[in-house]
What we know:
By secondary structure, the protein is of the alpha+beta class.
Amino acid sequence: xxxxxxxxxxxxxxxxxxxxxxxxxxxxxxxxxxxxxxxxxxxxxxxxxxxxxxxxxxxxxxxxxxxxxxxxxxxxxxxxxxxxxxxxxxxxxxxxxxxxxxxxxxxxxxxxxxxxxxxxxxxxxxxxxxxxxxxxxxxxxxxxxxxxxxxxxxxxxxxxxxxxxxxxxxxxxxxxxxxxxxxxxxxxxxxxxxxxxxxxxxxxxxxxxxxxxxxxxxxxxxxxxxxxxxxxxxxxxxxxxxxxxxxxxxxxxxxxxxxxxxxxxxxxxxxxxxxxxxxxxxxxxxxxxxxxxxxxxxxxxxxxxxxxxxxxxxxxxxxxxxxxxxxxxxxxxxxxxxxxxxxxxxxxxxxxxxxxxxxxxxxxx
Length: 365
């Protein structure tokens, strides 16, 4: 009688997230900025927008996509530095080259973030021991980035993307956190429902209105969550227990989302243009929500009566998901470059650099 042996592959997923990436690059390249509240973005005197902020500036409440005039009010001693996107992209390429040398299967998420599948290199007798085998690999990777690029990264290790992302946020900056399979339910219990991937502001309000404040409340909920969040209910319940079977996305994914309108008559009427931008921002935000994505780059497109077409864009470090942020950045771009100097034939808004949204100010434990 033949005997077959079934081999079980335990998943070991890393989430690597560079710490305050844009600001950290500036602090590395300019030693006088180290330890200072660095704000990457336009000058507050010119109504700019914050692209990124160092941890020293974040202590004052400064965050990406915030008007620089607001950032200056919150952090009077903030040092404003213009963004150098070319430098950040080149730095990202070098870091990802280091990551690739680990032999990991890589899903790049954004310029400073990636999921790594190291299951093949971390197989033990059970799930928890397999995950623990990832610890020395993560330490080596963090050390190489520190030594060769003089930057710090936080890494989360878990059996799936949901938990690995939460783990990388847990001890930032320069963190390394492992969430064992045997501990995932208890780890999740005290977190707010907003910590769960896919729970945005509206869904959070619905859940809170039903008395569900924490992930533990979701775990204990005796009813059918579909009554609250529709067909997503069963998936939300799985996430609440730390179950996530999403594979790393290695193929061609959606790269951008946009909306545009051609006017019947060329117009420079501000009320008409603002209403158009609001509608487009709302449409894009709804599509981002359906796809559970955020965007780091916002672009506006204008076309004049002579068919001259111009585009302008701005990139922020943390992904945005709300229509209000998309609308505000679009208005900023139109005003900054005086694109409504004459009537417009067409006006459009687009977002790109898509990635999973971040729950701000996540209170772990």
